[in-house]
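Recall the central idea of this unit: under ordinary conditions, the amino acid sequence of a chain determines the structure it adopts. In this exercise we apply that idea directly, starting from the sequence alone.
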Amino acid sequence: MSIPLHLINGFLGSGKTTFLLHYLDTFSRGRKIGVIQNEFSSAGIDGELITQHGGAYKLLEINNGSVFCVCLLGSFIGSLSTFIDDHAPDEIIMEASGMSDPLSIGQLLQSEKLRNKIFLGNSWTIVDVRNFHKVRTIRSRLEHQVRIADTVVVNKCDLAGDEVGSVTDTVRKINPFALIEQCSFARIDFKWKKNPFMVFPAEESTES
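Accordingly, the structure predicted from this sequence is:
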């Protein structure tokens, strides 16, 4: 049975881990969630935060580069396939490296080992509204992260002032089809502000 792979993108410091923890707080009860933490460095600092957070999920850490890079993609496909076989999660949510270019995710989804195991669920890109216009050296990667998103979370609005409108307009030009959520502390209302293309865990029944 195929399960959703949710993707969290965003440049360094945008709030991806905070967003991931918010997602786990919202949906982890009663569901087996696989968490993939991809960091560019060898030290899994954010992975330690996830582990200390607690919850009914399994963690797979991939360090030393982006899983979307050709140098890691092949080994990651094998690791992810084994991870699914070993833990049988209901869904997987992956926090990608801040330096990642996620446009190669199609190769991941269509790989022989994963083709019948996963499909792309939600794709969120977290944008640091204060620094979005300042990033020059990886501008193309940042734009790719925005283009692949079905929801762009414009984060840290409480610190940005007049920049919020400018960043939101730029995001909309890059990806006119995405739902744009303006927020602080990477917190959005998952249950009520839905893009019709999104995939969410089933709501728990309120019947006794």
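Confidence is low (pLDDT under 50) at residues 193-197, 203-208.
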